[in-house]
Design goal:
The complex is a heterodimer of chains A (about 325) and B (about 260).
Chain A (H helix, E strand, L loop, with lengths): L4 E4 L2 E2 L2 E2 L2 H16 L3 E6 L3 H7 L6 E6 L8 H15 L3 E5 L2 H12 L6 E10 L2 E8 L4 E7 L5 E5 L16 E6 L7 E3 L3 E2 L12 E5 L9 H10 L3 E4 L1 H5 L20 E5 L5 H4 L7 E6 L12 E4 L2 H16 L1
Parallel strand pairs in A: 1-4, 1-6, 4-5, 5-11, 6-10, 7-10, 14-15, 14-16, 16-17, 17-18
Antiparallel strand pairs in A: 2-3, 7-8, 8-9
Chain B lengths: L1 E5 L2 E3 L21 E3 L1 H17 L2 E8 L4 H10 L3 E6 L8 H13 L5 E5 L10 H9 L3 E9 L5 E6 L4 E7 L3 E5 L11 H7 L4 E4 L11 E7 L8 E2 L5 H14 L5
Parallel strand pairs in B: 1-4, 1-6, 4-5, 5-11, 6-10, 7-10
Antiparallel strand pairs in B: 2-3, 7-8, 8-9
Helix pairs in contact in B: 2-5, 3-4
The chains are: A alpha/beta (about 325), B alpha/beta (about 260).
The site of adenosine monophosphate has 23 residues of chain B, from helix 1, strand 4, helix 3, strand 6 and helix 4.
Chain lengths: ~325, ~260
């Protein structure tokens, strides 16, 4: 019967992606709850990088090797990881929910006739039974999910679900390198790059007023702009606003935009999807204005106003003007 | 060139969700529905590729009869025909089952390209396209934000995290999952809406039954537990809330 836990360690350009340690923490907790051992898996890493992983409390580290793993491709990664899973026959395979994992892990799981229990935010592992919790409807609902059937369960954890510094240190156990075969690789990557230097660097401003789809039209952004100026701050936005071309992409906050931590972040008509939250949750004071009392943005807000932003913003602007004298 | 676009119908983004009586899903009776956001962009990209290279755009949707509205809108915007896999009971199915049904519906079409959205706004698996690619034996690229198919070769720009990108050259046929914002979406014209009435919508049955080989079950759906103590201001009175907020920003947060 399948037994043991594998945890995937992601690396890019010679460095381990830190969210991998969050996955290690999740895997260790799962191990404690189910009485199973945790083994880390690295693909195409050099010895030094694989060694970094042995500092954690693990049963072992498997390093899969093949020259075709040097540059990440989903074809090569799926082939390599499939052989690790077949060799080990684990009950659980844990990943951080990164863009790279999203790219290859569903393909891997499909080879075992499964999908992933993806983007989990919590897990309860007690007495051998495991309940995963994932978000539905862009953060508006939680769902408890139970995996059934034979073979490995593949699960990914959202960034921030576990804390990397809570991954237990210890003896990493045996390091094993596994020569794997990689078949036809049907895509050819070029070097990663950033777009030409961004015109605005929002990481340096103290106040950000951010607008979401609730702003309704490009013209309405002026309302938020005025508030931002009054507070000596900058205007920013959620993705759909930049997608629509209402504001340039360098004003986008979130996982595929900028990450900011201003003293004050005012979110106007933003629902609070995780991909937005990761870009601003470390702001000092967070204000949310939203007409939906259940909007997930309120979960991280210090101050919330449930209401129509077109009523709130003009009054707020006026009141601040008064206070400023 | 034949391009298949996988399009899903999802609850309206502004929908107020209520948990269903059995606690296992949301109440669907009082919802309105729309096309999944990134799928709209996938269709737009397909239409643009067709305009440049010629060929045909085929929309494939799995869902109940109400999902026809997504299909009709896609046909009005310029898709040539559609396959509707009609099923009432796949709404809560896992990504593997959905991908399996879609892959079987697509297989005989032998498309040159399959475009999907990168993630559904309701289930949010972020997997269906990739699994379908594996089942169809196609190479894939995810989170695609630009497609360059001007020459013989297909080059795609993938979004990586925090503002990084990467181009990949892909062998074809291939499957791409499209990120929102890849281009500006066109509206259906009146002419398009009229023309759509004559376009073919073929109804087919799903290749497997819902629940077949399902390995994950939803035990319970509930509103997320709040972690932070939010001070709610104004008690439903927006203007009062705004005035209180200005005070708080000065006296508590000390920002003004
Ligand atoms: C891989 C990936 C990467 C992504 N990267 C990013 C990213 O970097 N940044 C990002 O922001 N998103 C990103 N997204 C998209 C993200 O998942 C959400 O779709 C997006 O953040 C939603 O934007 P929104 O809150 O503006 O819109 P919606 O979710 O549509 O929310 C609009 C809100 O406005 C409220 N509202 C409407 N009218 C009013 C009114 N009159 N007054 C007050 N409130 C009102 C509504 O109640 C609702 O809560 C990404 C998604 C994926 C899958
Ligand atoms: N029922 C469906 N019908 C058609 N396409 C779908 C369906 N479910 C998922 N998809 C496609 O798969 C993508 C990813 O969905 P998901 O894996 O649920 O996040 C969507 O953006 C669609 O393109």
């Amino acid at each position: 019967m399948s037994n043991g836990i594998l945890v995937f360690i992601e690396h890019r350009q010679g460095a381990i992606n830190k969210v991998s340690f969050e996955a290690v923490a999740a895997a260790q907790q799962l191990g404690a709850g189910t009485g199973q051992e945790v083994t880390a898996v690295v693909l195409g890493a050099d010895a030094a990088l694989a060694n970094e992983v042995t500092g954690f409390k693990l049963a072992g580290v498997v390093s899969a090797e093949n020259p075709k793993l040097a540059d990440y491709t989903p074809d090569a990664y799926a082939d390599a990881f499939e052989q690790v899973v077949r060799a080990r026959d684990p009950q659980y395979v844990i990943f951080p929910h990164t863009y790279l994992v999203r790219d290859f892990a569903p393909k891997l799981a499909a080879r075992f006739g499964k999908g992933l229990v993806s983007d989990c935010i919590r897990m309860k592992a007690e007495g051998g039974s495991v309940v995963f919790t994932r978000r539905l409807f862009q953060g508006k609902m939680d769902a408890d999910v139970v995996a059934k059937g034979d073979g490995a369960v593949f699960a990914t954890f959202q960034s921030g679900a576990y804390r990397g510094d809570q991954a237990e240190r210890g003896e990493g156990g045996t390091a094993e390198s596994l020569q794997v075969e990689v078949g036809d690789v049907r895509m050819q990557p070029e070097a990663p790059f950033q777009e030409v230097k961004q015109a605005v660097d929002l990481s340096k401003t103290d106040v950000i007023v951010a607008v979401g789809r609730g702003i309704k039209s490009q013209e309405n952004i002026a309302l938020a702009q005025k508030l931002a100026e009054l507070l000596g701050g900058d205007i920013a936005a959620s993705r759909p606003i930049c997608d629509a071309g209402w504001l340039p992409i360098d004003r986008q906050i979130g996982s595929s935009g900028q990450t900011v931590a201003p003293k004050l972040y005012i979110a106007l008509g933003i629902s609070g999807a995780i991909q937005h939250l990761v870009g601003m949750k470390n702001a000092g004071t967070i204000v949310a204005v939203n007409k939906d009392p259940e909007a997930p943005i309120f979960d991280i807000a210090d101050y919330g106003i449930v209401g129509d932003l077109f009523e709130v913003v003009p009054t707020l602007t006026e009141e601040i003007q008064k206070l400023k004298g | 060139m034949k391009i298949v676009v996988l399009m899903k119908q999802v609850p309206n983004k502004d929908a107020v969700l209520r948990v269903r009586g059995d606690g296992k899903w949301v109440e669907e009776g009082d919802l309105s529905f729309e096309v999944n956001e990134s799928d709209g962009y996938a269709l737009e990209e397909a239409l643009r590729l067709k305009e440049k290279k010629g060929g045909e755009v085929v929309v494939v949707t799995l869902g109940p009869q109400r999902a026809k509205s997504v299909i009709k809108d896609a046909l009005a915007r310029g898709a040539d025909r559609a396959i509707h896999v009609v099923a009432d009971d796949f709404g809560q199915a896992g990504a593997f089952a959905v991908a399996k049904v879609l892959a079987e519906a697509v297989r005989d079409e032998q498309p040159d390209l399959v475009l999907a959205g990168l993630q559904s706004d309701d289930q949010g698996f972020g997997q269906t396209g990739v699994i379908a690619a594996e089942l169809l034996g196609l190479p894939h690229a995810t989170i695609v934000i630009d497609v360059d198919y001007s020459g013989e070769q297909l080059r795609v720009k993938r979004e990586l995290e925090s503002g990084w990108y990467q181009w990949y050259t892909m062998r074809t046929p291939a499957l791409l999952t499209i990120q929102s914002g890849i281009s500006q979406i066109r509206y259906a014209t009146l002419k398009g809406i009229m023309a759509a009435k004559k376009k073919e919508i073929r109804e087919v049955q799903p290749a497997i039954a819902a629940g077949d080989g399902e390995f994950q079950t939803v035990e319970r759906v509930y509103l997320p537990l709040k972690q932070k103590q939010t001070q709610f201001l104004g008690d439903g009175d927006a203007k009062k809330g705004a005035a209180q907020l200005a005070e708080k920003l000065r006296n508590e947060a000390r920002i003004i």
